[in-house]
Amino acid sequence: MSDPTAHRAPPRLLTIAGSDSGGGAGIQADLKTFAAHGAYGMSVITALTAQNTREVRAVLEVPPEMVAAQIDAVLDDIGADAIKIGMLASAPIVRAVADRLRVRALTIPIVLDPVMVAKSGDALLRDDAVAAILEDLLPLCTLVTPNVPELARMTGLPVGSEEERRAAADVLGKTTLGKTIAVLAKGGHAEGDEVVDLLWEGGRLHRFRGERLDARSSHGTGCTLSSAIAARLAAGETLARAVEGAITWLRGALAAAYPLGSGTGPVNHLYLWNKDVWRKNP
Fold it and tell me: Do the beta carbons of residue 189 and residue 151 sit within 8 Å?
């Protein structure tokens, strides 16, 4: 008799984000990260971007009703064990996503990466969308993962020091009435030889420390980290364990990155798998 567990379905991960034609961030980075964690990835595209390792040349937003239709199509049939949200571009798209998830995903872990600016410095989120995220989307989330500039923009508070980031995370996590949202205040944009990421969970604060890597290939790190956390949550890990494991995995992907393009290249999402492939096919 065949083993009934031999073909057990992997965790189902849905990413709601923009498409990066260069493959280093957005939907493309998310799906690679899901695959690297043994999960089945699905996507809802919110915007098309024409970009490479140097710049974002054009952005075409997907109509909000099409964004909503994609969410419904996936959740009506396949379902999801966790959802990652990235680039949302505009307030109408934010509200369309919030409206569908409010109905369809109240029991599903949701990780929000509030993508605002590309690694090249190009804006990816309109000003009116920030308020919509805070008011409509944040209350639905399990975790939000702002970097230093995003944390400052979402709270209007100083975030120069670690203590200021902790205080801002406390404010952001309590923004919603009746629910506390966990906040991962990332330290990659802060100064110093050491990167300190702060996970604020209401009354608990976790500090994750690591030596700063001198990596030219760091495009898509925010997308990649949030997707790795979502994948680990879908697999049943606690939030703190999922964050710690995702940070460790991302550092490996950064360290194993290879030169690509003439600007800021991507991390090596499949570095663990590639080691085996290259060993077998030198």
Answer: no
**Angstrom distance (rounded) from CA 233 to CA 87:** 20
Q: How many CB atoms lie under 10 A from the CB of residue 38?
A: 10
Q: Which structure tokens are listed for 37?
A: 């964690």
Whether the per-residue pLDDT at 139 is higher than 90: the answer is yes
The CA-based angle 153-155-157, given to 5 degrees, is 90
Q: Are 229 and 143 in contact (CB under 8 A)?
A: yes
Give the type of residue at 282: P
Fill in the DSSP letter of residue 180. P
Domains of the chain, with CATH numbers?
12-270 (3.40.1190.20)
pTM above 0.90, yes or no: yes
Alpha-carbon distances of 250 from 36, 174, 219, 256, 269, rounded to whole Å: 11, 28, 12, 10, 8
Element (H, E) at 176: none
Are 77 and 108 in contact by the 8 Å Cβ rule? The answer is no
The dihedral sign for the CA sequence 128, 94, 202, 11: negative
Reported as type and span, the H/E element at residue 40 is strand 40-51
Local structure of 21: helix, strand or coil: coil
Non-local (6+) Cβ contacts of 23 within 8 A are 29, 266
CA separation, residue 278 to residues 123, 140, 270 (Å): 37, 42, 12
In the chain, how long is the greatest CA-to-CA distance?
63
Spatial distance between the Cα atoms of 1 and 11, rounded to a whole number of angstroms: 25
In one letter, which amino acid is 22?
G
Report the C-alpha dihedral over residues 163, 167, 168, 170, rounded to 10 degrees: 140
Q: How far apart are the first and last CA of the chain?
A: 39
Question: What is the tens place of the pLDDT at every residue in 188-237?
Answer: 755 666 889 999 998 799 999 878 777 778 889 999 999 999 999 999 99
